[in-house]
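--- STAGE predict ---
source: upstream dedup step, 1 unique chain passed
mode: sequence only
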Amino acid sequence: MRIAIFWTGVTEPMAACWRELAARPGVALTVFSDLPEVSHTAYRHEDVLAGLTSHVHRSQRSLDRAALARQIAEAAPDAMVILGWHSAMCRFAAECPAVAAVPAWIAFDMTWAPTLRKMLAPVVLGRYLRRFAGAMVPGERAADYAAWLGFPASRIERGAMYGLDAAAGGEALAARAARGAWPRRFLYTGRYVREKRIDVLVAAYRRYRELVADPWELTCCGMGPDGGLLAGVEGIRDRGFVPPAEMPRIRAEHGAFVIASDYEPWGHVITEAVASGLPVVCTTACGAGLETVKPWFNGRLVGPGDVEAFAAALRWIHDHEADLARIGGRGVPLVAPFSKEAWADRILSICGRA
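--- STAGE serialize ---
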């Protein structure tokens, strides 16, 4: 089976999934990636594609339609997975006459919200969406939006958009177990941008320090315009950008993962943390949290922007230090459906049915 995937940006977890799919017998995979002209992080997207049959485009500058059409023709896909509708590259692939008869699925993680744009989406996007055999979404929130866009339940494939390399989580689990004592440090990884609510995280952490006598430190790994909010805050260490290959070691050195986003359709960092055996504190705005973080079981969910509730959740982690290995371990089976192996199985099954 010849499969073409059209994606914007590249992440280590998805590249691991693509490599797993490409390694399956009888599969010829081609990845088309629309990368930003300028990256606001030190992340090198092109490096992550190493070992895959891939084509890089930068449609924000100017899409070379003739070159893209030739590449699609050379790939000669039997099935296509196309990410959303914002990328010029992805829109071209969906509407390319040469593959008009090829079954295609649209993938997206956007969630339903009562905004004018999303209320009008079924009308504005109607013609485009009719091109697709179905929708691939990560979880229930995006499935609700897919239904709003007009996809019937039988054509909404949950858990088929994102996956992760569970082996990396196993590395962190083993390394943490070898340490003996549970690490007394919180961890945040992600961009330092407005929707991640670094301001709320800092305020909640400060409040937590007021509630306990021997507070944990908070390590932050990332880059972005809101990084200045971390500067000079007692107990916070800003490590800046950390290469993905180093993250299993970083997660092994910490005792809980925290994220205070008020907009997070999914959140790879959450599933990676859960796979690493870390208890998680996140907001209800995080799609992955609703799927893999069960309150009072392997972490805590709090409302976006609620500083006091977030601080109380940090204290709950603090107060259960002796039990955190068991609490974090409970979450590991919850991410098994998102492993790269399970993801590849889903894609092959979905595409094979066509």
